[in-house]
Amino acid sequence: MTTTSADVVIEERPRNRLRSIYSSIFSSRLSKIGLCMIVGIIVFIVAGSLLTPYSPYAISVSINKPPSYAHPFGTDYLGHDLFSQIVWGAYPSLFVAMGGALGSVVLGFFVGVFGGYYRKLDGVLGGASDVVMAFPVLPLLIMLGSLFPATNLFIMSLLIAVLWPPVARSVRAQVASAKKLPFVDAARTGGLRDIEIVLRIIVPEVGSIAMAYFIVNVSLTIILTTALQFLGVGNPNAVSWGSTLYWAQQFGFYAGAWWWILVPGAIITLTATGFAFIGFALEEKFNPRLKII
Amino acid sequence: MRRILVSIAIMVAIINFDFIIPRLVPGNAAEILAASSRLPQQAFVEIQARLGLDHSYYVQYVLYLKGIFLSWPPYFGVSYQYFPAQVTTLFFSRLPWTLILIGSSFALSIIIAYFMSAYASSRRAGKFEVGSLYSAIVFHATPVFWTSMILLWVFAVYLRWLPIFGNISNNPGTGLAYLGSVIVHAILPVLAMTLSFFGEVYLVLRGTTQQVLKTDYVTAARTRGLSDFLIARRYILRNSLLPLVSLLTFSLASLISRVILVESVFGYAGIGDLIVDAVVNRDYPVLEGSIFYVTLLVVIGGLIGDFLLVRLDPKLREEDEVRQ
Fold first, then answer.
1. Considering only CA atoms, which of A122, A49, A134 is closest in space to residue B303?
2. Inter-chain touch A131–B6, beta carbons under 8 Å
């Protein structure tokens, strides 16, 4: 059986793709720093949640104490140990943020691929993405989050529903230009169905940009999620990064507890910055404007 | 042209959305008012009639639309908290304060990012360029409400240099003293927002300055002996105007989001504070009206930006003409 040129091309591309993503993460210094930060934070969270003797909800007598050996990050006005609060509160915040980022990239990816490949759907999908993109994000999230009982899943779906358009736009542009490649025509005359062309050729081409968008979106959703929690949307009594800062804003200034204000925000900043560094490095590599197809 | 259609679609979507969402929540507005006090049944019925809530949904919808389109200024109802102030009056009385914050931080971010990128590009790949890139990303990823809390703590609480909250003091006086009071209260919020926003501007400018520096005319200018600073001013400014304008069209929404957070930390009485208060107190008319106006502002900003883009960029102008 003779191998056609289409076969050869399809076979060797995916392997290179993965390797190129892998190498780009480790080549740029920026992303190495980001990766270290993220790994460090993950280790901190996991180890901390296993090692800390206090529950984040446990009140105690040592009220408003600055950092010490017993309480590494200090305590708040009710005696909650701040270290436990940060370490255990990471799970809701990060869960919502990562789920939201993942969902929005997946949704945007599908919309972009279908919009870019099928001309007929493009007008509708493009219009829909323009409309959604023009909404101011935070006011809408605040309004919806406060009118309905805002569980974590609800906030996550809100984030997905609002953040998918930029991904869709970028993916669509990539798909449209990938469609013009000569081996797409060759594949079609070779007898591949539409859906196979999409899966085997287009997806690997644009998969890398979706990955870059995911990481950048995680940084964005971390900030959005903690901002929503900070404003009191959802349950401010549930321990999370944003709600710790919510209570810090209410009571920390009067009590003079600078550690209460400083530490949770510093951890949020470190996490978001780590993802932003990696995302920036990936984006430089995979930016469609600079990429030559 | 297409952009105008999209904007109209957005406004239609928002108007309907605004109407439907509060109605979906269990508990009618009158019930909420009545829930926190012991209201006799008669008064409850009267309030319902006054607020127009005893009509069917269809009639309410028509009244709502009539309020928006047929009366000027658009009537969204009366606020529950600040009864009997109208929503529209409330919003527009607070709008200028927020615009002060947004405008100043936008202008300041552009200036800072501009100088930084000009200086960074004149020393290729020096420590300054790398450092400024890192710091731009870091500040961009820092949550703005945290930055404001830190600034508030350091400058207002600990050092006592600047006031703690509000947009003007209790007795501002007239004329220059009033202006001074406004400025002093605005310094920290503007600083917080600028720190958070200049990263975006810097990243955009960095791309264009790098591109510009590679062109021939810049090399020619440099060989002629023009100082780096002059080159930066003359060439980089003109060429980066385009991406800056396109940044404006997309960033008004994110600036408004940031200003909401900043205002809620500083207790600064602007739009953001209005929205957050309305959410906390379940003040539905104010919420509906504010979301509508905020979206309207963002859409108008986008349209202006698009218009400017078409005027400035000859490539887009051709495309527009060809399409028509």
1. A134
2. yes
Q: CB A268 to CB B287 under 8 A?
A: no
Q: Identify the CATH number of the domain in which residue A132 sits.
A: 1.10.3720.10
Instruction: Spell out which residues of chain B touch residue A134, defining contact as CB-CB under 8 Å.
Output: 6-7, 10, 253, 295, 298-299, 302
The residue extents of the domains of chain B are 1-86+290-324, 96-269
Instruction: State the pLDDT at residue A101.
Output: 92
The tens digit of pLDDT for each residue in B91-136 reads 888 888 888 888 888 889 888 887 787 777 666 556 777 778 888 8
Contact A131 B22 (CB under 8 A): no
pTM of the model: 0.81
The structure tokens listed for A86 are 């940060």
Fold of B96-269: MetI-like fold (1.10.3720)
Nearest-angstrom CA–CA distance, A265 and A262 = 6
Torsion of Cα atoms, A39 then A45 then A48 then A49, to 10° = -140
What is the SS3 assignment for B179? Answer: helix
Do A178 and A201 touch, CB atoms closer than 8 A?
Answer: yes
Q: How many CB atoms lie within 10 A of CB B324?
A: 6
Q: What's the ipTM?
A: 0.79
